[in-house]
Amino acid sequence: MNFIVEPSAVRNATVSVPGDKSISHRALMLGGIAKGRTEISGFLAGEDCLATLGAMSAMGVSIEQPEVTRIVVHGVGLHGLRAPSAALNLGNSGTAMRLMTGLLSGQSFSTVLTGDASLTARPMQRVISPLSEMGAIIESNSGLPPLSITGRFPLSAIDYLLPVASAQVKSAVLLAGLYARGTTIVTEPAVTRDHTERMLAAMGAAIEVSGARVSIDGEQGLKGCQVTVPADLSSAAFVILATLLAKTDAEVVIKSVGVNPTRTGVIDILQSMGGDIGLENQRWFGQEPVADIRVRSSVLHGRVVDPALVSLAIDEFPVLFVAAAAANGQTVFSGIAELRVKESDRIASMATGLRALGIEVDEFEDGATVHGGSFCAGTVPSNGDHRVAMSFAVAGSVATGAVTIADVAAVNTSFPEFSECMSSIGVSITATGESRQ
Ligand code: S3P
Question: What domains does the chain contain, in order, with CATH numbers?
Answer without folding.
Answer: 2-19+230-432 (3.65.10.10), 21-228 (3.65.10.10)
